[in-house]
Amino acid sequence: MTTQRHVIVGFDGSPTATRALDLAAREAELRGSALDIVYAVPDRDEAEPVLAAAVDRARRRHPGLLTLPLPLIGDPVTVLLRCAGTAALTVVGARAPGGQPAWPWRSVGARLAYGGTARGNRGRGRVAGPVLIVRGDPGPARVHGDVLLIAADGADAEAALHAFEEAARRGAPLRVLPPSLHSAAALVEVTRTAAVAVLPVHRSGARRGRLTRALLHGAHCPVLLVPVPPPPRGASPTA
Fold first, then answer.
1. Is residue 236 a part of any domain in this protein?
2. What is the mean pLDDT of the chain?
3. Is residue 233 part of a domain?
C-alpha cells in the first residue's frame, strides 16, 4: 500500500528533530522508500549546512538509503502539509513550531493530523496519510518492542491495517488494546515497552478525547496517527 511512496521527516537540527530523522530513516529503509528531509525556513541559505549534516547522518546509518534534502520557505505546518500529500509517512518530533515543547494540540504532528492553526482552530487542512510523532526513549530496546493498536472496532480498520503492516515490517508482536477497557493512564504505562502505538484519527474531525491527549502528551514510544473514516452516526469516536 505504501512501499513506493516517500517517507517525509520535518527537520530543523534540534535534538528532537534528530531523533525524528533517525526513526524516519529506519522507517524508509523498512519500506524500501526514499527519505525526504524537509526544513521549513525563512531563508534557504541557512538550511543548507543543517540539511547536509542530516543527509550525511542518514546515509552513514543506512547505507544505500536514497535521501533528498528539501529546504522550503514557510512555517513547518504549511510546508509539511504541502509536501505530505502523497507521502507514505510523515515523521515529526513532539515539538511546537520554533522548537519548544508543545502541549498536545499545539505540536506540529497533531496539527498535521487533526488540522488547525496555532490556536487550535480547524483553519487548515490535514494530511491524508499517517503521521508519526516521535516520543520516548529511542534506544535499541524500543526498536524491538510490541506494536500497540489502540482501536475500538471495525470503524478503525485503516488503523488496524497500518498496525499489522508495522508489526510485519518489524517482525514484532501486535497487541490490540480496546480503549473502552483501559484507562488513559494505563495505556500510557503500556507504551513504556512498546515500539510504536497506533491510534486512529477520524477524518470527520470528531472530538479529541482524553486518550489521544494523554498519549500525545505522555506516551513513552512514538505515536502513529492514522486517518480513518468517521464512525457510524451515533457511535462514539475512539479518541
1. no
2. 80
3. no
DSSP 3-state of 140? helix
Question: Strand 89-93 to strand 67-73: parallel, antiparallel, or no bridges (unpaired)?
Answer: unpaired
C-alpha pair distances (Å), 150 with each of 50, 65, 89: 36, 31, 19
Q: Are residues 60 and 81 in the same domain?
A: yes
Residue 100, helix vs strand vs coil: coil
Residue 82 and residue 194 in one domain: no
Count of the separate structural domains present in the chain: 2
How many other CB atoms sit within 10 Å of the CB of residue 119? 8
What pLDDT digit, counting tens, does each position of 13-35 carry?
999 899 999 999 999 999 999 99
How many whole angstroms separate alpha carbon 43 and alpha carbon 49?
Answer: 12
Contacts of 218 (CB under 8 A, 6+ apart): 188
How do strand 131-134 and strand 89-93 relate by DSSP bridges? parallel
Q: How does pLDDT run across 134-152, given as a tens digit for each residue?
A: 986 655 545 678 999 987 6
At residue 63, the 3 state secondary structure works out as: coil
Does residue 156 share a domain with residue 50?
A: no
Rounded to whole angstroms, the Cα distance separating 20 from 208 reads: 24
CATH code for the domain in which residue 213 is found: 3.40.50.620
The burial of 129, by beta-carbon neighbours within 10 Å (0-12 exposed, 13-18 middle, 19 or more buried), is given as buried
For residue 126, give its domain range. 7-134
Instruction: Evaluate whether residue 238 is within a structural domain.
Output: no
CA atoms of 200 and 155, how far apart (whole Å): 9
- pTM here is 0.84
What cell does 72 get? 522550503
